[in-house]
Structures
1.
Amino acid sequence: MGQEKSLANLSELKANKENSGVTAILISDMMRGYCFIEGESQTKVEDLAADIRILSNRAIQDKEVPISDLVEQLNPVPSIQGLDEGDIVEIVDGPFSGYKAKVMRIEQGNQEVTLELLDAKMALPVRLHADYCKKISSN
């Protein structure tokens, strides 16, 4: 978990070097710990993954995933859509990572939110992209 991008990059490098039969590699920020590889056959996908150390053999599954299960990953919902003014969020990236804040204003056009840090000694407004916020509770 947390090495999805590395796995996808290694898989892509290996797929480009040889006639691997791999047609697509999909990783999603919304599904941590998963990397979907599409290929001509199960055997070709297993051969591709055989020498990649960050991938454990028990993680390779021999089942097809219906495209209907991946539609949400292919067309993700904008992160600002689930936020409302007054919600409590946790900042997940940047210099204020780990801080909790209250949503004061939402700007739909550029998907930015103005937050008031709850953990700060004084009221400090911070303007961040909505991708850096994880909703904790609604008010």
2.
Amino acid sequence: MRRIGVLVDREAVATPEVLAAARRFGKALGEHRALAVVLGPLIGATRTLVQASTGVGGRGLVLTPEPTEELDQVEIRVVADRPAACREMVDRVEAFVVIPGAVASLDDAFEPWDWAGGTALQPLALWDVDDAFSKLLRHASDAAVDRFARESQRGQLIMSRDPDDILRRLADYRPPETRRGTAFSDD
């Protein structure tokens, strides 16, 4: 996979842990020569991730409703608003990765699948640094998980503690088989 949409903390000021996670994942993206596609503006952990990627040979694409700083090897695309940026991200990426600090709930983590009206086919990877997502899933009821991830999407979900493992698994990803729209006939 060459175009990865990364959900990262979009606050201007991020914690040292969130910045370290953004730097580590950005470096892995760059080393795998993937295009890091992020939602702007290019500040805080978002900026750190893109700089780490481009610093080791990667490229970046920032989809933002407001003008933002320009960086070498980074394309800035100004769009109408955040929903337009999200829809464009769905159209441009082959996979999504959520890194720690980007979301506070399962609802937020699974949001990329909703950006295309619930029809997104891209896999979604959760980078489980310090068991951030394991803790969310452990405390969620089965009904809550079912609400966020339909059965047809479960094969699209990847979770790992290692960014290189995530990128390898995304590269090896094959869409799961889906159920047929009509019943089988015994005739």
3.
Amino acid sequence: MTLKKIKTVSVFGIFSLCFLTHFLYNWFPNTLFSIFFPVNESIWEHMKMISSSILIWSVLEFFLYKRFKINHNNFVLSMFLDSFFSIIIFLIIYLPIYHFTGSIFILNIIVLFISIYFVNVVSYYILSLRPLHLESLGIIGIILIYIIFGILTYNPPFNDLFFDKLENKYGINIYEL
């Protein structure tokens, strides 16, 4: 097994995990899951699905690197950049399509797959670089991504990116009884 083969498998593994993480909050509604997994069907909430799938899969990848004694560098930095760029790439591709066609399931799936493919290509090159000694930047970046996810889940701006058209709401909409 080589780094390239693992990254190829990762594209399909992350893609598959997205289907699971899409529903985790619905199955186990709690505050922790609301930060890591989508709480509604807005475009923004699906960015949590992609990022969390990447991070969950990265744990498996780490063990695969150890199991097959694969040389790699900058692992945590790669995890952060994969999560960050997956959001950027997905939105850059998806928003123009969505603007012209609306939400079409098969197009959404294709854009998701393309985004995951591109971030795994980036990840392959980052892991192949000499050690950059930026692991702490990766940890801080991952933490910041999820702080932002948490804030925007409970206090979303009122724009289309955060609006769930199926349930006609923004964010998680927790109401006091």
